Amino acid sequence: MNKIIFFAILIVIVVTLLFLFVGKDDISTTFGIQENVENTETEIATRSIPDGATLYENKHFGFSLLYPEELQVKEFDEKNGSWTIVFEDAVMQKGFQIFILPYYEEEITMERIQMDVQGGGIIEPKEALIGDDGNVRALIFWSDGSILGETREVWFIHDGLLYEVTAPAELDVWLAEIMKTWRFGDPQP
What we know:
By secondary structure, the chain is of the alpha+beta class. It has helices spanning 3-21, 41-45, 110-116, 172-179, and strands at 53-58, 63-68, 72-79, 82-89, 94-102, 121-130, 136-146, 149-158, 161-168, 183-184. The protein has a single domain, classed as Protein Transport Mog1p, Chain A (3-Layer(aba) Sandwich). The chain is 21% helix and 41% strand.
């Protein structure tokens, strides 16, 4: 089974279980990740696209990013407002995924992460600014212990949604360049 698809399924299961079992009162250690970014849909549509890149726009969630043109994109409706978006080059076994789920807290906590990354260690958690304007506050960390080995995780909150971006650890620099292109606009119904 392709590692990326397996990883996507594994993350979906873990996050779904977390969503069902983690309550507001269980969260105590706070990283304080919040962000307020205001871009317009027009800004998303008018961005320049460099050679070798493709624009991904998600009008439902109101974001866009640039990704390498050799990647294929697949979207999976996980129900209950959750989605998985997989960007993958099956030939080169290179890719990343975005898992989006409703999130009713204003901050990401260590307890939340430990629930989602069950069985894996959380290494070097730290805050970072991502996005094409450096205005999206995120929590980034390494995770190990999964079947896939070590991964790079980038988590952030926007408009009541938790975004969990995951890639194999060896693609950290590559993923960082993609995350620099992230831009929020206005979601469409």
